Amino acid sequence: FNIRYFKFNSIFLRTFLFITALTVIPFIVLSIMFYSNTLKNIREEITLENSYIFDNSVNIIDRTLMEVDTLSSASNESTQLYTINNVSTDSFKTISRLAKTLPIIYRYIDSIYIYSEPTDTVIMDNNSIPLSDLSDTDWINAYHAVTTPKGTIVPRSKNNVYPQLITIIKPIYVADEKKGAIIMNINAQSIYNSMLYQQYKDGRLFFLVNADNKIIISSELSYFNTYPDNIGLNTLTIESNPKNSVYEINDKNYVVLSGDSSISDYKYISAYPLELYEHKLSTMKLQIIGILLLLMIIIFILAYVASVRSYSPLNEIISFLDNSQP
Predict the structure, then answer these.
(1) Is residue 180 within 8 Å of 117, Cβ to Cβ?
(2) Is 170 helix (H, G, I), strand (E, B) or coil?
(3) Contact predicate 183/166, CB 8 Å
(4) Ordered alpha helix ranges (H), the chain
(5) How far apart are CA 267 and CA 272, in angstroms?
(6) Chain-centre distance for alpha carbon 98
(7) What is the pLDDT of residues 136-178, one digit of tens each?
(8) What single DSSP character describes residue 247?
């Protein structure tokens, strides 16, 4: 009789494989579908969150730069600095008071210089001092290069050390002749910390790149006044690639979004670390693996119990047949 050759292990293996086929395979299929759907949702979440933060940041910085530019223009229009050569005049007191008050009102303004080219002097801190006595003078070359009333914006470091500044130079013209300028120094890190820090925590990166392709505002202080290419971001490549493309920055993958400023020829770049969402996916993978292992243990127990119950009658029959042999 073939029944003699039924063994417990054979029954257990068949039962185990049968239950596994009924439970594990559907579970794996559903897990793959769930994982794919979650991955799609996470990508959409990255796109939406990155786009929202990016658009909000662009509006904040554009509005701030426009505000500061308006302040510079207003100061420019009210300043007759080419006639100022006496610190006791009312004109000097008004101008010096303006230069002292604005940095108090606007925290991100580091300082304001009022430069008079005819007298080669700078008004600051209620004093008029010769340009040669001023330690912070690396803006003067940019001033001399200005040829239009629109002025220019240059990234630099105060006294060539610290803090990092965005300097707005608004020249003053009299009868089409440049006579001086308003030099408004914005603390780049202060403007970032006060307006964007909360949005770019957890490793997110933010850059404002000027027309010379230099970073003038950054979430990382070390990137200030450097080229995006130095960290793996080519602005031309970013523009030609689809939005929210993935780039490697300092050995980490980021979803990168870029856009133009609405008030200048500057470019904004927002980089969102993939590891923030890869962590979510890793957690989900561990959960799926954990559930799968638990399911296999339950299947093993059920197969063992079912095999014991199925084998008992067969064992009795085999024993009866063995005993009935002469």
Answers:
(1) yes
(2) strand
(3) no
(4) 8-77, 90-105, 140-145, 188-195, 235-240, 275-324
(5) 17
(6) 36
(7) 999 999 999 998 888 888 888 888 888 888 898 888 887 788 8
(8) E
Retrieve residue 174's tokens: 């009299």
d(CA 22, CA 17): 9
Helices (H) and strands (E) in the chain, counts: 6, 11
Six-digit token pair at 43?
A: 């990508």
Cα dist. 151→19, 143, 171, 202 in Å? 78, 8, 6, 37
Per-position b or e across 254-278, b if 16+ CB within 10 A of its CB? bbbbbbebeeeebbbbbbbbbeebe
For residue 91, count CB atoms less than 10 angstroms from its CB and return exposed for 0-12, middle for 13-18, buried for 19 or more: middle
Which one, of 21, 27, 20, lies nearest residue 291 by Cα? 27
Cα dihedral 127, 129, 135, 138 sign: positive
How crowded is the C-beta side of 74, counted as CA atoms within 13 Å?
9
Q: Give the bridge partners for 164, in sequence order.
A: 157
- On the question of pLDDT at 201 being above 70, the answer is yes
| Tokens, residue 17 | 């494989």
Question: Do residues 307 and 8 make contact, with C-beta atoms less than 8 angstroms apart?
Answer: yes
Question: What residues have CB less than 8 Å from 249, skipping those under 6 apart?
Answer: 205, 231, 232, 233, 271
Two tokens at 48? Answer: 């939406």
Residue with tokens 């300043």: 79
- Residue 63's nearest CA partner among 26, 29, 106 is 106
Rounded-to-integer distance, Cα 168 and Cα 181, Å: 10
> Contact at 8 Å (CB) between 314 and 10?
no
Instruction: Give me the phi and psi of 87, to 5 degrees please.
Output: -70, -10
**241-265, pLDDT tens digit by residue?**
666 678 888 788 888 888 888 877 8
